[in-house]
Amino acid sequence: MGSIEKLALARKSLNLSLDKSKALGLSLEKAGPRLEEISQRLPSLEAAVRPIRANQDALMAVVGHIDRAVGPAAAVLKVFDAVHGLEKSLLSDPRNDLPGYLAVLKRLEEALRFLGDNCGLAIQWLEDILEYLEDNRLADERYLAELKNSLKGLREFQNNSGKACLDGGLLEAALDKLEDEFCRLLTEHSVPLPMSSDNEQACIAPSPLPVSVIQKLQAILGREIANNRLDRCISIYVEVRSSNVRASLRALNLDYLEISLSEFNGVQSIEGYIAQWGKHLEFAVKHLFEAEYKLCNDVFERIGLDVWMSCFAKIAAQAGILAFLQFGKTVAESKKDPIKLLKLLDIFASLNKLRLDFNRLFGGPACADIQNLTRDLIRRVIEGACEIFWELLVQVELQRQTPPPPDGSVPRLVSFITDYCNRLLGDDYKPILTQVLVIHRSWKNEKFQEKLLVNAILEIVKAIEVNIETWYKMYEDTALSYLFLMNNHWHLYKHLKGTKLGSLLGDTWLKEHEQSKEYYATYFMRESWAKLPALLSREGLILFSGGRATARDLVKRRLKKFNEAFDEMYKKQSNWVISDKGLREKTWQLIIQAIVPIYRSYMQNYGPLVEQDPSSSKYAKYTAQTLEKMITSLFTPKPGRYASFKGRQYSGKFSIAASDQHHPSPTST
């Protein structure tokens, strides 16, 4: 073979080699991913066949571990499924079927208790399997690592808050719905009492809630207590019931309870409120708080005394009992007016009347704040009342140097004290004042005798008598001083006769003042109006001894003097006052009888002498009827001058005006 042929064959051989190399390269390129996939699957294949290569004893032992873990785990999963099955029922409205709802809720609680008890056990068995697999290298390490992380997370969750979240919050949602139903039942059956300020004595049913509602509330409380949510139910109960009591009290217009000490203008400014306060407090305690007390017992009796008493204490405090006590404290702290003594006694009487109710309703440890406020109020009332009572004599004596009324009327102090002491000795106040004085002295370990009260009041009356004797001397006008004495002696007689105080003073004392009135009425006339008739003398006119002209001049002069004296007397006494209507009318008659008949006769006999005179109006100035009319306009109290007993004010001194004058003694005639 020639060299050319050999080259051709070599060329051909090279080309075939190149083609094979290209084909092999393409094959290798296609096989690369498959080889990579095989390389990745080799470890898992190795792990899959590892148990085959594992120790036969180890493989047999793991079966037992798995069987022990599967049982609890399967039970837990089954209960979890059951919990989810309860979700629809528990998210419905309990009012539609409360007993059924509570039964389902109880099943949920039982399921959660099972899960709480068994989840830890299942986790423990799984951890045991994991540990066995690791020790015996029976599973892939990556698989075991993932399983270990999962079990670690489950264990931490179970140790921290897992028990509370095993149901995904279903229990909390169900309990929230129960609390809403608890609130609804209370609200819909808590109706304020239909009443007004004129109808405080509204009738109260034996229980403010129907028995069926109470039973439902108790059933709800049972489940709430089982889940440690009693406090939330109590808060709801207190809010609803206290709000209901407040709504009942709002009809009574209790805004006055909010009056502060700085707003006080004296006890008189709120005297009417104090009377209402006693009635309103009695109504609140005997009806509203009594009903709440019974209802708390009915609803919470199965839970325990401490619970329902605490609940009632909160209702009482939030509903307004503290405001009632604070109002009494405000009155006790206000300035010391004598009239305040009666109001303090009213407050004490109201509290004393409710003493047994207060002890029964608010006597427990839960009502300690109410007890303390009540005791403090009683202490302030007793101390304040005793202080005012024992200082009253001193206050009366202090008024001795103040001026008497410029119009000669009865001083406010006299009318106030006579009425005041009569009321203190009356059936309404004497037993209360006596009890207050007894308690106050017992605090000092001193005994009280009733004569102390009586003697103190008699000393006050004696001090008033001394004041009257002192005041009359301050008048410059003698007639006015007699008018003043006439007024005051008659006032003491008339206003004390037939009274408890009058009986203590005795008939002799009363008779002396009646006689003194007559005595000073005589002196009053003698020093004033009784002087006028002498001015109408008939001397020199009987026989017209000097002639008609002379008689006319005498009549003119005498009428002029009479008119001037009458006008002066009338003008002066127009500002004087006789306080008692009967005494005023009697005094009118004394003046009329002393003047008018004489004037009428004089004018009938001698009037014609001046009536024809061009200036007759200067002399025949009055008719008898005119004089009588003018006289009966005297001594009338001016409107608004004399306040009632309730309106009299006291601020350490009584307001009276004065001057100085002497008078004869009624026994010195």
From TrEMBL:
Residues 276-632 form the Exocyst complex subunit Exo70 C-terminal domain. One of its GO terms (biological process) is exocytosis. One of its GO terms (molecular function) is phosphatidylinositol-4,5-bisphosphate binding. Keywords: Exocytosis, Protein transport, Transport. GO terms for cellular component: exocyst. It holds the Pfam family Exo70_N. Signal peptide: none annotated. Component of the exocyst complex. Belongs to the EXO70 family. This is Exocyst subunit Exo70 family protein. It comes from Opuntia streptacantha.
